[in-house]
Amino acid sequence: MSPSRESDARAILKSVFGYDDFRPGQWEVIEAALAGRDVFAVMPTGSGKSMCYQLPALVAGGLTLVVSPLIALMRDQVGQLTRAGVAAASLNSMNSESEAAEAWDRLNAGDLRLLFVSPERLAGEGLVGRLRRLGVTRLAIDEAHCVSQWGHDFRPEYRLLAKTREALGGVPVTALTATADRQTREDIAQQLFPRPPHLVVHSFDRPNLKLAFAPKDQPRRQIDAFLRSHRGGSGIVYCSSRSRTERLAEGLREKGWNALAYHAGMEQEQRNRNQDVFLQEDGVVVCATIAFGMGINKPDVRFVVHADMPGSIESYYQEIGRAGRDGLNADTLTLYGVDDMALRRRQIDEKPIDDERRRIEHKRLNAMIDLCESALCRRSALLSYFGEETPSCRHAKAAIRCDLCAAEAPELTDATLDARKLLSAVARSGQRFGAAHLADILTGTATEAIRRQNHDGLKTFGVGQDKPKSAWTALARKLFAAGALAEASVEHGGFRLTHKGEEILFGREPIALRADPFAERGSRRSGREQARADGLDEGTAGLFEHLRQLRLSLAREEGVAAYIIFTDRTLIAMARARPAGLEEMRAIEGVGERKLTQYGEAFLEAITRFPG
């Protein structure tokens, strides 16, 4: 790579996008792309993957075709690029006739540098042929994990992209994804590249995200308590079902939150409206299924909550990755329970897949369960799953961003005796009752159900009076997670012993478990303080909020998301630096030449007029 190419790239990075330097991993991908090589990049959300195909398109010229999975995402990216002065357009089913005609006029004139298309649109008759005649110079594939049958968002249309590459004349490909374990990476490479590509696997660590987990204990109360420490921030609460998103959103609205539901079963108009409100406004909580997320380009999401346990670490990592994309601190909370574990296992068992695929999916689910029940640093456990060995938060130089390391991390203790008591209660009661009933047996609580079943006469009745019921229900969950218990009945639930459970019960195998971690109580900081994710002092925070209001009014006038004007990170930099002129404003991160011309004077005036 010639020094002039790198200097050109850096000049465009500053003048167009307003950044002084590349983020870690970006230049390696960009350099390989500019050299005409195939590139496969695995980089976490928030690392700036889109820059890895946008910048080469501007430096090298020609037309880059970008395959993007969702219309909302591509329209958002085109909007951001256009406001930065980049010649970009999209072709999708939501284009008006005039928009499509304008895009083709610019394509035919050779004016465009980036064209965004969905994989479904590419499969349409004749489009690839027309694009080849126009001379596509590079194919960029975003969310490349969609091509893999092992990926968590597999989309059959992505399988056609290798043929698209051939039909375009074998152009170089840049494929990017945020999540892919080794098996998924190998599958992606095999599907998309005729020869091994230049592989860039950046660290999966997101040190600005705090990882927290808690067993379910009145989930609505837990979520409300968590949100109270994030008032004023925008966030996502993921739910496992459509009906749950609506019930939870309604419950949060009753408590004063600006909460909206989002799922694939809603009318398209309502779904789009709720998504637009979330993208454009501050302080919005969206309760959503996983249908919401892949197309969300909002950089200032301050928290992600899982109201129900995800089915795999890949899904979990992808979903929490939607928080803190601006690099500022963001929090995550995952609630989990034995019902989640049973549901996820049942979903795998009921899938029409072969035995090998089912084995792998169970392995991935067990890894997710292990993360929930971990007695070690969450961050170390998460990164270890992706093949990175790192010290715990407690021993790392960076700030502690894990619930276990922030408290006294629980250690594994010998739980064999208590486990045998509970497993004995399962066996003696007929292997069909749930955790609450078993806890009543062990604590000697003679409920009507206990007496009706004559379980007050069992040898195990009352043998666990030294512990509260909550301790026994928690132990049942842990034994289920450890594979010592299994679901007794799909229709009625309850527990039965597994082979491992029998081995423990009869003293042939010990078991060590951790104590439940501390309850996630959330921060005691006020909502106003919580909005200052970067620790702004009161005066600077006031100016930041003032600039956010100006940004919001401009965004409403233009009908775009607020962050397309400027991100929170850029506004915070303005509030700290208080530029007095356009030259000083130009030095602010995220202020490119086009945005300086469009918005510089308005924000300078707002800064000058702000008291203090």
UniProtKB/TrEMBL annotation:
Enzyme Commission number(s) from the entry: 5.6.2.4
InterPro entries, per database record: DEAD/DEAH_box_helicase_dom, DNA_helicase_ATP-dep_RecQ, DNA_helicase_ATP-dep_RecQ_bac, Helicase_ATP-bd, Helicase_C-like, HRDC-like_sf, HRDC_dom, HRDC_dom_sf
Enzyme class: isomerase
Domain annotation HRDC: ranges: 537-612
Molecular-function GO terms, alphabetical: helicase activity
Domain called Helicase ATP-binding: residue spans: 30-198
Domain of life, per lineage: Bacteria
Cofactor: Mg(2+); Zn(2+)
Keyword annotations of the record: ATP-binding, DNA damage, DNA recombination, DNA repair, DNA-binding, Helicase, Hydrolase, Isomerase, Metal-binding, Nucleotide-binding, Zinc
The keyword Isomerase is annotated on this UniProt entry: yes
Positions of the Helicase C-terminal domain: 222-368
UniProt cross-references to Pfam families, sorted A to Z: DEAD (PF00270), Helicase_C (PF00271), HRDC (PF00570), RecQ_Zn_bind (PF16124), RQC (PF09382)
The reaction(s) this protein catalyses: Couples ATP hydrolysis with the unwinding of duplex DNA by translocating in the 3'-5' direction
Similarity section: Belongs to the helicase family. RecQ subfamily.
Name the record gives this protein: DNA helicase RecQ
Species annotation: Bosea massiliensis
Name of the encoding gene: recQ
